[in-house]
Design goal:
single chain, about 400 residues, mainly alpha, Heme Oxygenase, Chain A, about 70% helix, globular
C-alpha cells in the first residue's frame, strides 16, 4: 500500500479518537478552563519549538524546505500563545510528555531524519488543520515522486502515531482534569517515584537516555518502545540524586544496577549512562556541576568494581573477538554485544547470580539469531568465565 494511503488510514483513526475527547470538544466550543488551556498551549509550543529546531538541524534535502516554513497559528490556539513555551520549571506535569517527544525529534534529526516528515504532518497539519485549508492533499502532493525505503516509511508512520498518542493523552488528562504523578508522563508503568521537573534537567536526562539507546542497539532490540520509556523515567529519577550524600547515592544506584542486571542489562550500561547523564547535566546547568559530579563519581566507583574482575581492555578484546566471529552484518546490527556478554560475566562474579542467564537466554534464542551468533555467545561466555576463574579461583571476588 502506498505511503500516502497508509498515512491517510492511520491518521484518520487517530483523528477520530482525538475529536471524540471532551477536551477537544471544549476547545472547539471555547469552554476549556483557562488553566487547561494554558497547559495545552505550553505543550504545543514546546512541540512546535522542538520540531522547528529538529528540522533546522538536518541537512536532508527533502526536509530543508519544511524547515524554512513558518506554519500559521490555528484560531483555536489564539495567536501569541504558541510562543509561550516554558523556559525554566514546568507549570503543569502534562507538559513533560511534550518535552520527551521533543527530545525524540531532536535525536531523530540525526538518526532517522525522514521520520521528521511524520512529526511535521501530525503536529503541523493533521491535528489542528486550519479552516479552509487542505493539509492532507497538500502533503500528499508533496510526497509524490519521493521514494522512501521501507524502514523510512515505518519511521514516518511511527512518528505520526507517537504525535497523535501524545496529544490524545494530553487532552484526555486536561479535561476533565485527572491527577497524574509527573513520572506518568514519561512512563505509565513507572509508578510514582520522583523525577526532576526542571526543564533543563529533564531535557538533559532525556538526551542521556537517547544517547544510551544509540550506544547500545540491544536496548531497542530487546525492550522496544516500552523499555525506552523506562529509560526516560529512570534517567529523570537519577537526576534527583544529584547533590545528595555520595554514600546514599551509591546505595540507590547499586540497587538499580543490580535490578537491571538481573533483568538482562549489565551494569556496564548503567555505568556508561551515568557518565553521559553527568556530562549532559553539567552542559545544561554548569553552575550546578558540584551536585551533578556525584553521578560521575558513582559511575567511576561502579567501573572500579568491574575492573577488579574484567578491565576495559579485556572488555574491548571480547567485543572485537565477538564481532569477528559473527561477521560485519550482525556486528553492526547489534553493536557491543560481546562487551555486554563479558560485562554480564563480571556482574555474575560480582555477586549478581542472574546477570548471565537473563542476558544469555535472549542472545541464544535460535528463532532470533543464526548459529554462528549463538556459537559466538557461548564462546565469549566460556572465555570470560575462564579468565575470571583463573583470576579468582575461589569464586566470587571478596566472598570466601
Amino acid at each position: 500500500m502506498p505511503l500516502v494511503d497508509r498515512l491517510r488510514n492511520e491518521s484518520q483513526a487517530h483523528h477520530d479518537c482525538v475529536e471524540s475527547l471532551p477536551c477537544f470538544r471544549a476547545l472547539a466550543n471555547r469552554t476549556l478552563p483557562s488553566g487547561s488551556h494554558r497547559a495545552l498551549h505550553q505543550a504545543l509550543a514546546l512541540l512546535h519549538e522542538a520540531l522547528t529546531r529538529a528540522l533546522a538541524a538536518t541537512s536532508h534535502p527533502a526536509l530543508v524546505a519544511l524547515g524554512a516554513e513558518a506554519p500559521s497559528v490555528h484560531p483555536l490556539l489564539e495567536a501569541g500563545l504558541v510562543s509561550s513555551a516554558p523556559r525554566d520549571r514546568l507549570e503543569s506535569p502534562v507538559v513533560i510528555s511534550a518535552v520527551a517527544l521533543g527530545e525524540r525529534m531532536r535525536s531523530a534529526a540525526h538518526r532517522e531524519p525522514l521520520s521528521l516528515l511524520g512529526y511535521h504532518y501530525a503536529l503541523r497539519l493533521a491535528l489542528l488543520p486550519l479552516p479552509g485549508t487542505s493539509p492532507w492533499s497538500d502533503f500528499a502532493r508533496w510526497l509524490e515522486g519521493r521514494a522512501l525505503e521501507a524502514a523510512e516509511e515505518e519511521g514516518v508512520l511511527r512518528a505520526v502515531g507517537e504525535s497523535f498518542t501524545l496529544v490524545r493523552n494530553l487532552l484526555d488528562a486536561l479535561h476533565p482534569p485527572r491527577e497524574r504523578p509527573p513520572t506518568w508522563w514519561l512512563n505509565r508503568d513507572a509508578g510514582g517515584h520522583p523525577i526532576t521537573t526542571d526543564l533543563d534537567e529533564l531535557r538533559a536526562a532525556l538526551r542521556a537516555a537517547e544517547a544510551s539507546w544509540e550506544e547500545f542497539p540491544y536496548y531497542a532490540w530487546r525492550y522496544g518502545e516500552h523499555g525506552r520509556q523506562f529509560s526516560w523515567s529512570d534517567s529523570a529519577w537519577l537526576v534527583t540524586l544529584g547533590g545528595q550524600d555520595e554514600a546514599q547515592v551509591w546505595k540507590h544506584i547499586s540497587w538499580l544496577g543490580g535490578l537491571l542486571a538481573s533483568r538482562g542489562m549489565p551494569r556496564l550500561m548503567l555505568e556508561r549512562h551515568l557518565r553521559v547523564l553527568s556530562r549532559e547535566l553539567v552542559h545544561a546547568k554548569p553552575m550546578h556541576r558540584r551536585a551533578y559530579d556525584v553521578l560521575s563519581r558513582v559511575a567511576e566507583r561502579m567501573a572500579g568494581e568491574r575492573r577488579r574482575i574484567l578491565g576495559d581492555d579485556e572488555l574491548r578484546m571480547f567485543g572485537e573477538d565477538f564481532d569477528a566471529r559473527v561477521g560485519p552484518e550482525w556486528s553492526q546490527q547489534l553493536r557491543g554485544a560481546g562487551e555486554l556478554l563479558a560485562a554480564a560475566v563480571a556482574d555474575e562474579y560480582g555477586g549478581i547470580a542472574q546477570a548471565v542467564p537473563s542476558l544469555a537466554s535472549w542472545m541464544r534464542e535460535p528463532s532470533r539469531f543464526p548459529a554462528p551468533w549463538i556459537h559466538a555467545v557461548e564462546r565469549t561466555l566460556l572465555q570470560a568465565r575462564s579468565l575470571c576463574r583463573v583470576r579468582f579461583p575461589s569464586g566470587v571476588p571478596g566472598r570466601e
